From TrEMBL:
Its EC number is 2.4.1.1. It comes from Solidesulfovibrio aerotolerans. This is Alpha-1,4 glucan phosphorylase. Allosteric enzyme that catalyzes the rate-limiting step in glycogen catabolism, the phosphorolytic cleavage of glycogen to produce glucose-1-phosphate, and plays a central role in maintaining cellular and organismal glucose homeostasis. Belongs to the glycogen phosphorylase family. One of its GO terms (cellular component) is cytoplasm.
């Protein structure tokens, strides 16, 4: 374009004020005097987008000029949370924006409420990805994310008749002003078809993938601002669109409806997050989703690379790709296809490029969560990729056989193809074989990845396996979510902690300062007052800010053991109502989390929690000592209300089942004390904050493994031995909390007493209630409790996602910061 660029936008309050009015008039088509609060919120988002785009383009040019190696993070989900407030805080203009809006008769918090949480993720996996993007930008690292632009999120959860009800989460209903459509960078995605076998003139094999159907991947960019706003990276999300043309063969046969249906089907791919996998159509759609993510991402990455580099064999020198769990594992096969079929790179060189470029993060120890795809389905959807996977497997197993004597059992264990339950491709195996690095997300998890999930691979490639303990961004989860505590910390030690969380160590001596502890306690109480107002407004339940707030906020799943928490609540309730027990301090138990729509047990746990709340909160004998709240539709914006108000954080999964957890880090960072098992990152949190500042209970991972391996766990033994357990389970079975449906929860009684019940609830219960006894006694002594709370916050510096990203950058990706000139 033969003209100079337009002037850059500034963060001057007057300039922003002018821009907001400009957008109300020219983007929304309204006179300013007629603008609603929603209009102001939209115009403010557009105003910030202008400034972020300026910085995003400057950041891109900076990376290009330095020929920086770049990292691309492939994840099936991202839980960004609301972007408006986060950008305001990361640009450090919250005070100015608050004053400007107040002068117009609005409050910043009210304006922010008009934004919907982008429903692009399910839980910890997506939230971790969002934290990583924040840290990459804050650290001036050349890295961006790739994902899918879901039109509908997982679901909106409401509670009706004490049960979870799922409704579509059309988060885009009001639009997302922050995002940029990049239709000019769309890609054509091939699917289905067949492979024809041909030969080149020199006689080598030449496969041709033919008769494939296609769809279009349209990218949308969401700017990701680092703290201070000097570096702005982006998250690129692809939406599936149909091609402009119909299938003319079908059309010419007169089946217009079928031709239109094909166009509509292609757009289903990015309609909704996580289809139900219990039916074959859902499985196929999920596989197509994963390939859609992989193909669009790799096309975009290689297009960008080839604009600056002519030789595709230099890809690993300038590019790192991180696979966030197994969902993008097809990247291994697709990159090989791109190199071998399209670029005509010889197989061995292509394999070296692929493995040098890709790295894999494992996030689970649950066998059912390790993805496998049937050979039959892969052959239907991606016939050429199945051929490539088989060839990778053949060469890999040949190399194993050639390395020395090996038995057939080991070959079967290491094969990419599982032949035990019909032929299936093991996607985790494909990711391990096709990557140069495999990491877990906590010290315990990474060790179990080597010893339990992939022992044969770890023996073969001990240098490939490593640990990268998860972290959370202090910008979102303390600076923004808890401005009262952030302000107190900044006043005490300065603001460098926002980008260097290790600075929180300077708070350690202040744990002995009575005046500081009192101010810390006042901040916590103010957060509890705000949450109490929200709970009263949304549920009608009145809770006291002077009670102990005990929280378990996470996906509802049997291994996370919300049932263990429920059993303790029932235990306390029965002690109060039947034994005349008076607890040392009132408690409010807050539960939050979604259950997968097809997960009966998880949905019934929510049902029990809600029934329990109904009974306890209405019982005058107990309600002044005990309240139960289920906070519906758990999401980032709700977490930002819950976490600052928590006194106790429940991290009670069975040892050896949780990979890491990041909710445990957020709660502890905000001064909540953890009650937990030696599972996931709990181990490292306990080491960091001090054993005396963590309420430990339960079996260890080796003890759990021994029980399950030997079949020695007999829950009836605990039922007979401990009257506390017997009374709780009998009350559930007898319908104490479901008088209108006396047998509604009898399945829980049967499940918890089943031989070798997988999550060992009863084995840990007595230890769990003993830990809670200590919590009650110590919370009743404010000086003791607040000293522990301050130390939890002060010692959480290690759990910053900035530290995690620095470790990935140094040990796996080989990328370095590219700061602005003069920074």
């Amino acid at each position: 374009m033969p003209v100079d660029s337009c002037p850059l936008h500034s963060l001057d309050t007057g300039d922003i004020s002018c821009s907001i009015r400009e957008h109300v008039t020219h983007s929304l088509g309204k006179p300013c005097r007629e603008a609603s609060q929603r209009d102001v919120a939209t115009a403010l988002s557009l105003t910030l987008r202008d400034r972020l785009v300026d910085k995003m383009l400057e950041t891109r040019d900076r990376y290009r000029e330095s020929r920086a190696k770049r990292m691309y993070y492939l994840s099936i989900e991202y839980l960004l949370g609301r972007c408006l407030g986060n950008n305001i805080y990361n640009l450090k203009i919250q005070g100015e924006m608050g004053a400007l809006l107040h002068g117009w008769g609005y409050e910043l918090e009210d304006i922010r409420e008009f934004e919907r949480d982008p429903a692009l993720g399910n839980g910890g996996l997506g939230r971790l990805a969002a934290c990583f993007l924040d840290s990459l930008a804050t650290l001036d690292m050349p890295g961006c994310g790739y994902g899918i632009h879901y039109e509908y999120g997982l679901f909106k959860q409401s509670i009706e008749n004490d049960r979870q009800v799922e409704r579509p989460d059309y988060w885009m209903a009001e639009g997302m002003p922050l995002q940029l459509e990049r239709r000019d960078q769309s890609v054509i995605v091939p699917l289905y078809g067949r492979v024809e076998n041909h030969q080149t003139p020199d006689g080598s094999y030449l496969p041709l993938w033919v008769d494939w159907q296609d769809l279009v991947g349209v990218p949308y960019d969401i700017p990701i601002a680092g703290f201070g706003g000097q570096t702005v990276n982006y998250l690129r999300l692809f939406a599936a669109h149909s091609t402009d043309s119909f299938n003319m063969e079908i059309f010419d046969q007169g089946d217009y409806i079928k031709a239109v249906h094909q166009k509509i089907y292609s757009e289903l791919i990015s309609k909704i997050l996580y289809p139900n996998e219990s039916i074959s159509f859902g499985k196929e759609l999920r596989l197509v989703q994963e390939y859609f993510l992989v193909f669009c991402s790799l096309r975009d990455i290689t297009r960008r690379f080839l604009k600056q580099n002519r030789n595709i064999e230099e890809l690993p020198e300038y590019t790192a790709i991180q696979l966030n769990d197994t969902h993008p594992a097809l990247t291994v096969a697709e990159l090989m296809r791109l190199l071998v079929d399209e670029r005509r790179v010889p197989w061995d060189r292509a394999w070296n490029i692929t493995t040098s470029t890709l790295a894999f993060t494992n996030h689970t120890l649950m066998p059912e969560a390790l993805e496998m795809w049937s050979v039959e389905l892969l052959e239907k959807v991606l016939p050429r990729h199945l051929q490539i996977i088989y060839e990778i497997n053949r060469r890999f197993l040949d190399s194993i056989r050639q390395s020395g004597p090996v038995d057939d059992a080991k070959i079967r264990r290491m094969s990419l193809i599982d032949e035990n339950h019909g032929k299936q491709v093991r996607m985790a195996h494909l990711a391990v074989v096709g990557s140069h690095s495999v990491n877990g997300v906590s010290k315990l998890h990474s060790e179990l990845v080597k010893t339990v999930l992939f022992p044969d691979y770890a023996a073969l490639w001990p240098g490939k396996f490593n640990n990268k303990t998860n972290g959370v961004t202090p910008r979102r989860w303390l600076y923004k979510a808890n401005p009262g505590l952030a302000g107190l910390i900044t006043e005490a030690i300065g603001e460098t902690w926002i980008t260097d969380l290790d600075e929180l160590q300077k708070l350690v001596p202040l744990a002995e300062d009575a005046a500081f502890r009192e101010r810390f306690a006042a901040v916590k109480r103010n957060a509890k007052v705000r949450l109490a107002g929200f709970v009263a407004k949304t549920t009608g339940i009145v809770i006291s800010p002077d009670a102990l707030y005990d929280m378990q906020a996470k996906r509802i799943h049997e291994y996370k053991r919300q049932l263990l928490n429920v059993m303790h609540v029932i235990h306390d309730y029965l002690r109060i109502t039947e034994d005349g027990y008076l607890p040392p301090t009132p408690r409010v138990y807050v539960f939050a989390g979604k259950a997968a729509p097809g997960y009966f047990e998880a949905k019934e746990i929510i049902h029990l929690i809600c029934r329990l709340a109904r009974v306890i909160n209405a019982d005058k004998r107990a309600s002044e000592h005990l309240k139960v709240v289920f906070a519906a539709d758990y999401r980032v914006s709700l977490a930002e209300k819950l976490i600052p108000a928590a006194d106790v954080s429940e991290q009670i999964s069975t040892a050896g089942t949780e990979a890491s957890g990041t909710g445990n880090m957020k709660f502890s960072l905000n001064g909540a004390l953890t009650i937990g098992t030696l599972d996931g990152a709990n181990i490292e949190i306990r080491e960091a904050v001090g054993e005396e500042n963590f309420y430990l209970f339960g079996l260890t991972t080796p003890e759990v493994e021994r029980h399950l391996a030997e079949g020695s766990y007999d829950p009836w033994e605990y039922y007979r031995k401990h009257p506390e357990i017997r009374r709780v389970l009998d009350s559930i079975s007898a319908g104490r909390f479901s008088p209108d449906e006396p047998t509604a929860f009898h399945w829980i009684f049967e499940k918890l007493l089943a031989k070798n019940e997988r999550y060992l609830h009863l084995a840990d219960f007595m230890s769990y209630i003993e830990a809670h006894e200590r919590i009650g006694m110590e919370y009743a002594r404010p000086d003791v409790w607040m000293r522990k709370a301050v130390l939890n916050t002060a010692r959480m510096g290690y759990f910053s996602s900035d530290r995690t990203i620095r470790e990935y950058a140094k040990d796996i990706w080989g990328i370095k910061p590219i700061p602005p000139r003069g920074a």
